[in-house]
Structure formats: structure tokens, C-alpha cells
Amino acid sequence: DAGADNDLYINQAVVFIEDAIQYRSINHRVDSKSLWLYRWYYSRTCQWILSLTITVILALAFVEEPSSLTVTSDVRYRLPAWNPPCGLTESVELLCFLVFVADVSVKSYLIGWKEFWKNKWLMAYILTLIVSLTDWIVSLSFSCTVSLRIRRILRPFFLLQNSSMMKKTLKSINSTLPEMASVVLLLALHLSLFTMFAMLLFARTKDNQQDKEWVVYFRNLPDSLTSLLVLLTAANNPDVMIPAYSKNRAYSIFFILFTVLGNLFLMNLLTAIIYNQFRGYLLKSVQSSLFRRRLGIRAAFEVLSTLKETPASAQQSYVSAGALQQVLQKAEMDSRCKQAILRSLKMCSCDQLSAAQFQKLFEELDKDAIKQHPPSPEYQSHFMQKLQFAFGHPYFGYLGNVVALANIISICVVLVMDADKQPSERDDFFLGAINCFFILYYLLEMLLKILAMGLRRYLSYPSNRFDGLLTVILLILEISTFAVYGFPHPGWRPEFMGLLSLWDMVRLVNMLIVFRFLRIIPNMKFMALVVTTLLDLVKNLRAFAGILVVVFYAFAITGIMLFKGAVVPLGNNSIIYFKGKCDFMVISAHFQAEGVHCLLYLLSVNLICRWAKIYFVAWWLISSVIWVNLFVALLLENFIHKWDRRCHRESLSDIEYQRTVELMFRDVLEEPTEEELMEKLHQHPHLQLCR
């Protein structure tokens, strides 16, 4: 009947609007049951369960054999780690697999059979699950004694496929690879030519005393390549040139030329190419996101225009304002955007909306999120108004910065004076007294600011929350110190009591005071610009961090499987060697946590055994050469964007602008035409439009 049809159209419009908000594809089933399942699948609860499942299956690597549950990572000193019995982690893993099976089943059903065969990610998802479950069965059938577990390397895929932004980022990286490959090949040619020159320059002679460069670094082709590759990372600079330089100063020309051409020219050329190419591909990806948003909004308009209450027109379709209000009431969206759209709808004061008007209303989704701070309290007393003016003035904040600087200087003076003293020789009276004074000032400053600004306005500023939290912690620590050790006095050196000694508590207080000095950042415009750029990267570029986690995890697990049991401690020496044929120093990737730590350390490259060089060179290429340059490119893009905005718009003290990755490129994106939108809508596999 007409009522049921209207309800279906309203629900379809709600889902399409939600798809537009989240930049999701609208190519899914649109019948009543499928819409209910679709909204349930993308609900916060369901997505939270899926995210938790992904976190759990990734975290299993820290518990599985070989376990990382030890206090120290040093193989010489740690106690035997607890390893879970066979079947414990496997049971948790099976539960995770069942969640993933349900996830892929729902996704496959919702998009339909035809769309499923076009979706490579879903097919890869199913293949990963089949391989993982097969490996799980094989592992259990051998009572968990199989050391090679392929499913552990595949686990990061579950994180990757769950994020649309990570998929787009990966696609952008993949598209950039040909341009990267050209520079990497040039880098390889540079390395090969200089390797040949090095083997000719440092060839073996009759005098063994003069052959130190040949013996240590350039004995054969693999050693020569490795030495220069490590020099390219500057990890063995200047060690690699010292023997030759000791023999003849002129040899330094070779190493200078190699470093200048490799590090200053080729590596920076790679950064420039990655920045230029990756920015273009990321821009294309963001452009497709904008198209999805516009398509979702237009799809909502088209289904609402078919409502029975909407008057038909041969020339143009319209949507009633009442129908749009019903959709907005049901749709899950940011309250700021919802209120802004309703205000615009009320100001429009028209009962029927055309496609252009409908689209314009939803442009609120593309605007910066503006956070306005609450107003200050209005005092009636003239005296209180003067106090409010004095303690709410920026100069009062500057005074606080000067006091914080004086606090830092006083701590530095005391630390320098007590640097060479034994704990029993220190007199903590002076440090305890100045800490007491400054903490009381910080408390007074916080209270006066709250008086001037009001509690709600005070807490609306992140810098004030940071200040206030540290002040409260400092006050609690100071009160605890007085309660345990009494008030400061000359010769104040009480014995150890409780969990922390006096010196430990004073050190903790001083570290927090030093940390509190970061409050000066918002008052220094250029420093604030740099810090906000970094914070925006942390908040908005989670997809890139996610791919980095995927790379770290995969390499760490691979390293564990390759080098498990290959590390033997030699007494109390700090040098650790691989067993067998390896003749180079290594850092252990024996356990999961150590594996990740090892990969972080190997960003600067360490000497490794010959047969393992492929693994570590691959890690260096992906992490240092490609990924670090990608991060630099994104940092540059974010910084340049913020700098341009700073030049064109004055920042208002009471307004904060919060931007997403899509909004970073908003000024250069092209709006899709109506023909493009309608053509795409008519290709929808499950939606039949009337026109």
C-alpha cells in the first residue's frame, strides 16, 4: 500500500544520507529487511564488536608461543615465559574467525551476487579466511607444534580490509610504485657503480696492515654492497671510511661523493617524486569520496521525490520539506550538521525543494567543524569585573609562562649542582621549597582563571585542561610528600618509606613541571602551527598509521618465524650472535615485542647475517625509503595547507576549526555534474528509479 511504500522510501533516503555522511558506496540492497540489516551492521555496537575482534586477534601474537610476557627482553637475564596451553589461544582465534565469517557473509549478502564478483577485497577476505582456518586446523591436528603458522602473517589483512581510507591509501601507494621504482632503480645503479669503484680502490695488496678497509668492508661483492648500502643510511658513518682515511686522506673524496649523490640528491629526489605523485593519487581518491557523498544525497532526493504525497511534475522533481525533516530525525548524523540543515530549511521557507536546493542544504557536511567556546560569566560587582578583566587578560597567561620558565631554570640549576652527588649527600630542602612555591602559584593561577572565565569556558580550552590536570596531580604529589616526609627543612633527607623514596617523588614532580612547560606552545604562533599540524596528522591520518601497523606486524611475525631460536647469549657480553653460518651482529627478533622493537631499531639498519639480508633490505626499503618519505609528503601537504589557511584567514580566539582529510583538499575538488550522478544512479544494481 501507499503507506508501506512511503515508509520504504523514507528508510531508503535515511540510509543513503548516512552513506553520504560516511562516504560509503550506495550499491547495496534497498528492500526493507536489507535496510534494517544494513543499519544494524553499521551501528556503533556492531562496528565496535568488529574492531574489538580485530584488536584481539592481532594481540594474540603477544601471548602465543613464543610468548612476550616477560619483564625484560634480554635473552640472558629473563625467566622462562609463560606459554599458553595448546587450544587456549586457538579457541579465542576460532571465535574471531566466526565473527569474520559473519562479517563477510553480511557484506556479501548486502551488496548482492553481481557486485560480489566485482569486489576484489571481499574475495581476498574469503580467501584469507579459508587459508587461516585451514592453517588453524593443521596446527591443532599437530598439537600446536607446527612452528610455521601462515595465518599469523595474514592477520593484518583483517585490519586493512575494515578501513575504507586504508584501502584508498593502499591503492594510492600502489599507483605511485612505478614512479618510485624508477628512482629506486637509479639508487641501485648508483650503489652498484660505487661498489665497483670501491672494490677497485680498496683491492687487496701485499701489505696486510694496509688492507683493513678490504678486510672489514670490501672483501667481496656482497660485503661491498652491504657496506655502501649501510653507508647510504648513515648508520656506519664514519666507521666505514676510517681505515682508508687513515691510510690516505684522498680516499675521503670517494665517500663524500657517494654520500652527496646518494643522500642529498637521490633520496631527496625520491621524496619529491613521492610527494608529487602520491598527493595526486590521494587527491583522486578524495575526489571519488566526494562523488560518493554527492551520489548518496542525490539518491536520497530521487527516492523521496517518488513519495505519494509529492506532487508530480513532468519538468522537474521535488521533495517536500516535511519528508526531509522525517529523514533527518531518523538519520544518524552529527547534531551540529543536523541543526544547521534544519536552520537552513527553516530560512528557506519553501514547502518543495528542487534537486539543487536539496544538495545545497547538505553542503553543511563539507564545512569545517567549528567549536565555539562558552561565554564568560557576567559579574554584577564592579570589583569582580575588574578581577575578571585582569585575570582573563592574555598578559596574565604570559606571566604564567614566565613563572613556568623560572621554575624550569631553578630545577636545572639544582640538577646541575647535585649531578655528581650521591643520594645520601643531597640536600633536597631548596628543591622541595621552590617546588612548593611554584605549585601553590599554579594552583592560584588555575583558580583565578576559573574565576575569570567560568568553569565551562576554562575546560573548553585543551591547554587549560592540560594545565589543570597537571596542577591537580602536582598538588596531590606534593601533599603526599608532606604527609610522608613532613615539610621541607635544611638537611631534608629522610629514609626510604613506602612505594617511593623522597627523591623519586621529587623527580616525578619535576618531570611533570617540565612537561607542564609545554603550555607555552599555544602562545607561540609558529610553534603552535607545527604542533597542530602534527596533531592533525595523528587525528586524521589514522589510515596511514594503520598501514604502518600492518607492515610492522607482518615483518615482525615473519622475523619471528625466520629467526626463532637463532639467538644465543654469550655469557654476560652485550653482543648476541646468530647460531650457525652467520658472521655478523644481529638484533633478536625472537619474540613478538622484541620483533617490533627490532624493526624500529633497524630503521637505521644494522649489520646482519648474509642469508637474512634480503629480509632486512626489504624492511629498510618499505619502512625507511618508501614509508618515511610518504609520511614526509603528508606532513608537507598538511603543513602547506595550514600555512595557506593561516595567510588567508585570521584565527579567532573563541573559535577552533577541526578538519578531516577530505576537507584538506576541499578547495581543489571538482563537483560532479548532474549527468554523471544520474548515469551512476541508473546503474545501481538494486534501485529502480522512475525517471
UniProtKB/TrEMBL annotation:
InterPro entries, sorted: Ion_trans_dom, TPC2, Volt_channel_dom_sf
Spans through the membrane: 45-63, 122-150, 180-202, 253-275, 395-417, 429-448, 469-488, 508-531, 543-563, 614-636
Entries under SUPFAM superfamilies matching the protein: Voltage-gated potassium channels
Subcellular location: Late endosome membrane; Lysosome membrane
The entry's keywords: Calcium, Calcium channel, Calcium transport, Endosome, Glycoprotein, Ion channel, Ion transport, Lysosome, Membrane, Repeat, Transmembrane, Transmembrane helix, Transport, Voltage-gated channel
GO BP terms, alphabetized: calcium-mediated signaling; endocytosis involved in viral entry into host cell
Source organism superkingdom: Eukaryota
Span of domain Ion transport: 52-278, 398-639
Swiss-Prot/TrEMBL catalytic activity: Ca(2+)(in) = Ca(2+)(out); Na(+)(in) = Na(+)(out)
Gene3D superfamilies with a match to the protein in the record: 1.10.287.70, Voltage-gated potassium channels. Chain C
Topology class, membrane: Multi-pass membrane protein
Primary localisation category: membrane
One GO CC term, this protein: lysosomal membrane
GO molecular function per UniProt: calcium channel activity; intracellularly phosphatidylinositol-3,5-bisphosphate-gated monatomic cation channel activity; ligand-gated sodium channel activity; voltage-gated channel activity
Pfam family, one: Ion_trans
Family annotation (PANTHER family): TWO PORE CALCIUM CHANNEL PROTEIN 2, TWO PORE CHANNEL PROTEIN 2
Family: Belongs to the calcium channel alpha-1 subunit (TC 1.A.1.11) family. Two pore calcium channel subfamily.
Protein name stated in the entry: Two pore channel protein 2
Organism of derivation: Onychorhynchus coronatus
Taxonomic lineage: Eukaryota, Metazoa, Chordata, Craniata, Vertebrata
